[in-house]
Amino acid sequence: MEVIMKSKSRKTAVLSVIILLLIMQLAFLNERKHEDNKTSIQLAERNVQDTSVSDKDAAYTEEIISTELNVVYRNTSSLKDISQEMEESKVKSSYDNKVVSYTLEELIIYSEPDLKSEPVGIMYSGSEADVLERGEEWSKIQSGKVTGYIRNVDVLFDSEAEVIASVIGNKQAKVNADMINVYAEADDSAAVISTLEKGAEIDAYEENGNYTLISCDNGFGYISNDSFDVSYNLSKAVSMAEIEAIKEEERAEAARKAAEEAAAQAAAAQATAAQNAIKQQTTTRGAYTVSAEELHLLAAIIYWESGWEPSEGQLAVANVVLNRVFSSRFSQNTITSVVYAPGQFSGVSENGVPSARFQAVLNKSNEELNLRGCYDSALKALAGENNIGDLLFFINVKKADFTKYKGYTIVNNHCFYTY
């Protein structure tokens, strides 16, 4: 705001000086004309016929120099000519007819140039807008989906806006010519390293004379300053409707996260309670006698599904198999039929026979299977040791959907459950 006030004061002072000088010139010219008339009368009385004007008189002009604006103009110039010359001397900016908000607070955009009118949007600090109409105190702007009025004291205009934009933004060049060359150096006689089509947007850096350094597919190069428009990718205004929609999304997201957190806490509490309850249970199942082949098969499926798990996890998998053998929910009532049931143990069976990969596990000896403790876990389960109760299924705990389970417990990396 201080910058804007200084600029206005300076321009007002300069114009006042110009007007005062013109008035003084007119008074001086009138006095000179009066003196010329007296001279003419005296010459006539003396019968002097020579009416020629000296070169000094013919070339009479007075130059007035304004050190403030570095503009030289003659006393024969009109105020309109002077103003036009001043305007033409200004440096053109890519941010002509643009503003940048620099307030610490949110800048409200109003429907009318009145603080009592309806707010239609907000510009956050560092946002930019196009100026549609510029007034003395208020200006009409358009930014994003918002069109309305802002107070001039809250924004920077034109070249001043570009200064702040260059500090807070990311300078971008948008090609405005049909096709331009990218030069290896800041010279049109340098090697052409690439070309850019109209509308292409690239990162731009420092200027070097009439060229600007940019980055393109072939690295860094230079393009002519008059071949592109500059932008700094500043944020735009947001409408009141957009603000409300954002707030609603934030409220919904917060509610969703709170619900997920509550569900996770409840599930964790239930899992802990269930696991503690199962740990307190004593084994009530009697020993189950099987053939050597089925014992080997049980050890193999433990190896297949949980060979990397600690012994508690292996025992739990073994008991899932036995629970299905004893459950009325399954038609399979042997270890073999449970293991090879369609769709039960992924990758184990192909067309009712062991898959090649599972066959490789079956080919291991009991000693090899027991290198990971799988054979011992099978023996414990067959002896009646049960750490999951009557649960019938298991899944990786990361994929578990606790809301669907009638009962479950977590053992190591698996969730054991039933519907």
TrEMBL record:
Residues 238-272 form a coiled coil. The keyword Cytoplasm does not apply. Keywords: Coiled coil, Hydrolase. Residues 95-159 form the SH3b domain. InterPro entries: Cell_wall_hydrolase_SleB (IPR011105), SH3-like_bac-type (IPR003646), SleB_dom1 (IPR042047). GO terms for molecular function: hydrolase activity. Pfam families: Hydrolase_2, SH3_3. The keyword Coiled coil applies. This is Cell Wall Hydrolase.
